[in-house]
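Hello again, I could really use a second opinion on something today. For a while now I've been wondering how a particular protein folds. Please have a think about how the structure follows from the sequence. Here's the protein in full, and shout if anything looks odd to you:

***
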Amino acid sequence: SACGRVAETPDGRELMIDPVDTPFSAYVFKLQANMNPRHRDSTAFLRVCSGRFERDMVVKHHRAHTEVRLSRPHSMVAKERNTLDVAYPGDVIGIINPGVFQIGDTISLADGFNYKPLPQFQPDVFARVRPTDTIMRKSFDKGIEQLAREGTIQILRSLDGQEFLSPRSAGCSLMSWNSSCRGNTGSRWWWMCCPMNPVRGSW
């Protein structure tokens, strides 16, 4: 269903976006890599919040302050992809992501607002992970960063910007590790569960 969605203006004011009267706007709510086994692509899923979407339209990317052409939009049913020419408020469309989109991004024709971010689940498992084969370190790091961009895991860093508990630490559910890391990091990996003090926040 298409209903009004609350957004925020740059000065912090709340704004109700009307799905009919407001020009096209959408919200990036999911990123998914390697959906096509023949290509290592990444797809950004957008929910149309207002206006009419048309294929190849040029929109404003609010976070990056740039313009983006939304080419090759598609809908997905099971493993089938169908090219979309138009979409309306409430529809979900997939866009090939060349690395410009992140979860929570707002795009529109009008600019001047950002949709409020989706809530994040708190991690259940804290672990220090590293590849068992050091030759695969680069692909391992790339896979971990990809998982973080997709929202599957969270990479924890110290206040000085370095990874917390070197070489790498992340918090997520155990199910997320078992189902995601093996297929995305490109190598075997080793992890160690790290108990965390819930009061002092120390390991």
Residues 164-170, 195-203 have pLDDT under 50 and may be disordered. The two ends are 45 Å apart (CA to CA). Helices lie at 137-149, 174-184.
